[in-house]
Design a protein that fits this description.
Helices cover 37% and strands 16% of the residues. By secondary structure, it is an alpha/beta fold. It has one domain. Helix 3 (89-100) links the parallel strand 3 and strand 4. Helix 2 packs parallel to helix 3.
Length: 110
Amino acid sequence: MQGKYKVITLCGSTRFKNEFIETQKRLTLEGNIVISVGLFGHAGDKEVWENMDEDTLTQTKIMLDDMHKRKIDMADEIFVINVGGYIGDSTRSEIAYAAEHGKVVRYLES
């Protein structure tokens, strides 16, 4: 398949690192350009929290959240990694942002 590839940005809790990796692989093999997260803050990447507690917004977390909105801007759609139906506050705001900007929203689990 050559030509226009759909661009999909993955959204979801970074605690689901394995599911992010598996979904990225599957969507890529289906012929999509996949944009993912750069760090898995809830799966061990401590840089996100700058040695602070996870309930405290850090400059890094604020930057990463804004950066993810730019990744949504570049995408045709978002794909939400919602294992067990879980959708946290950051992901909820990304879904709302995507919907406001006319992006298709798909989910791992219905």
